[in-house]
Structures are given as C-alpha cells and as structure tokens.
Amino acid sequence: MNLDFMLLKTTSSAAVRGERHKEQILERQKAQELEQAMLSERELNPYWKDGGTGLPPEKDETASVKKVTVVEDAGLSWLRKSYQRMKEQAEREKRNFEEIVAERYGSMEIFQSRLDEAEKVASRKENYYGSGRWKKPDYSESEKEKKERYMKKETRGEDARN
Fold this sequence. Notes:
Organism: Nestor notabilis (Kea)
Distance between the termini: 107 Å
InterPro entries: Cwf19-like (IPR040194)
Number of helices: 6
Number of strands: 0
Family: Belongs to the CWF19 family.
Largest sheet: none
Helix content: 55-70%
Keywords: Coiled coil
Region (Disordered): 42-62, 123-162
C-alpha cells in the first residue's frame, strides 16, 4: 500500500481567503506608496499636499444636490442664491450679514423688497401655468347647442342616405 496521498498539502477555503486578503492589503499599500511618490513637496494645491484627493471636502452631502429651477421665475432663484452666498461670505469673513447686504444692495430693506417682488411674480406665473392654460376650454351653452344641432344634422343626413 502506498501512502503518497498523505504527503499532499491540503488547504482550507479560510486559508485561501486569508492569503487573498493579505495580497489585497499589499496591493493597496503599493498604490498608496506610488501616489505619495508622485506628489511633490512643492505642491501648491493644499488638498493634494496632505495626501488628499485634490478636491475640497464636502461639508453636507444633501446641499450638493442641485435644485431644479424655473426659467422664468422673475429672478427669484438668482436672489435666493445671492442670499446664500452673502450668508456664506459673512460666516467666512466673520462680518455682520447686514453689512454685506448693504454693500451689494444698498440696504437690507431694498434686498428684502426685491425678494418679495420676485416671489410674488413667480407665484403668479406658477398659478398661471398651473391653472390649466393648456387645457381645452369648456364650451359655453350656446356653443354646446350649436354643436348638438350640427351633430343632429349629421345624423339626419346619414339616415336620409340609407
């Protein structure tokens, strides 16, 4: 009897998975080393300097979602975006929000009045387009009667032919 089968090496699936995991970790480390080697000490982009991705970090994922705006909203979307930018500028420069608004628009009241006007115009346009302007108009009674008479004439004419 030959016992050669006992000399063969056997491996379990867990051992194979462990080896693959080690290989993947080594590949990741090599990729990171190559990326670090490509970066220069003289890099000007601060997001690349410290091993970053080259892009600034996003503070809020939901804020990055774009809103769909109406084309003819009387400048409402533009004014809202301007408001948001002024707010961000006030936080960034640690200044009073009303000072920044006054620099751009003259005073807070002027900006607020423009915003209110744009909201009114936009709501009117929204009501105009949403009111069924594109729907088929209802007929008045006289037009309905004309249509009924016409239909009766058509049916009488068909009866006379038959």
